[in-house]
């Protein structure tokens, strides 16, 4: 076991472990190092972080100081995702120290990461969609394709992944219906509006008249 005497030395040893033994990407290693050095700066401010004895453990590296550090992160008004990322680093680092014999107990054993906010995707308003559809598309095959994509998405509300999985035989022009394959390959029948069908038919006819060459 390498003899280390400060928290910073322990962090550097951990960073080398990530790079040399776990073969993590340089970007991941830099993220770990940045987050842990941020914690080291906090410990320095508290006059903590020296390893006691002959490599017998980080005597000052305990749950109380981790909770104090967590409180400072909230005071800095960091986003919950950033706090969770830092806690992830603070969870992995002690496991390394524990395995190497530098500490006897994992200090984050009872510290929970903050509950992350559920971000809802932003959707376009009806007026914004109409503005897009009123926009002038190119008259070539790609322009007709792009307009057909927007018309179908707006008319049916299907996902983009479901749209890209559509085949020609999934479209019933007479009944104005399409067969959609969702998650788990589950199929459902979805109605489609006449304007979208008209635009789709225009695109398909243009593609066929272009010699059947598929460019989308």
What features would you describe in this structure?
- The protein has 216 residues and is mainly alpha-helical.
- The protein has two domains: 7-100, Orthogonal Bundle (DNA polymerase, domain 1); 126-209, hpI Integrase, Chain A.
- The chain is 53% helix and 6% strand.
- It contains eight helices and three strands, in the order αααααααβββα.
- It has a three-stranded antiparallel β-sheet, with no helix packed on it.
- α1 packs antiparallel against α2 (26-45).
- Mean pLDDT is 75; it is low at 49-57 and 211-216.
Considering the chains and any ligands shown, give keywords for the structure.
mainly alpha, 2 domains, disordered C terminus, hpI Integrase, Chain A, 216 residues, 3 strands, DNA polymerase, domain 1, 3-stranded antiparallel sheet
Strand arrangement across the biggest beta sheet: 1-2-3
According to CATH, what is the class of the largest domain? Mainly Alpha
Kindly state the mean pLDDT as a whole number?
Answer: 75
Shape, principal axes of CA atoms: elongated
**Total beta-strand segments:** 3
In terms of DSSP E residues, the strand content is 5-15%
Structural class: mainly alpha
The main pleated sheet reads as: 3 strands, antiparallel
Question: Could you name the CATH topology of the largest domain?
Answer: DNA polymerase, domain 1
Q: How many domains comprise the coordinates?
A: 2
Distance between the termini: 58 Å
The proportion of residues forming helix, as a percent range, comes to: 40-55%
Radius of gyration: 29 Å
- Poorly predicted runs: 49-57, 211-216
Order of H and E elements: HHHHHHHEEEH
Based on the structure given, which CATH architecture of the largest domain is correct?
A: Orthogonal Bundle
Number of helices, where a helix is a run of at least 4 consecutive DSSP H or I residues: 8
């Amino acid at each position: 076991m390498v003899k280390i005497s400060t928290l910073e030395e322990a962090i550097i040893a951990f960073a080398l472990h990530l790079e040399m033994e776990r073969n993590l990407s340089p970007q991941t290693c830099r993220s770990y190092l940045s987050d842990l050095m941020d914690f080291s700066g906090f410990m320095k401010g508290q006059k903590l972080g020296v390893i006691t004895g002959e490599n017998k453990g980080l005597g000052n590296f305990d749950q109380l100081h981790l909770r104090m550090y967590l409180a400072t992160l909230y005071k800095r008004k960091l986003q919950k995702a950033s706090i969770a990322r830092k806690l992830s680093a603070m969870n992995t680092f002690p496991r390394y120290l524990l395995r190497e014999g530098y500490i006897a107990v994992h200090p984050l054993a009872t510290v929970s990461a903050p509950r992350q906010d559920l971000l809802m995707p932003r959707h376009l308003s009806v007026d914004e969609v109409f503005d897009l559809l009123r926009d002038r598309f190119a008259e070539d095959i790609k322009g007709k394709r792009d307009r057909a994509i927007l018309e179908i998405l707006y008319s049916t509300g299907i996902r983009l992944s479901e749209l890209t999985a559509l085949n020609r035989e999934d479209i019933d022009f007479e009944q104005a219906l399409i067969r959609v394959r969702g998650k788990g390959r589950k199929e459902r029948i979805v109605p489609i509006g006449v304007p979208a069908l008209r635009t789709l038919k225009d695109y398909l006819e243009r593609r066929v008249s272009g010699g059947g060459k598929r460019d989308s």
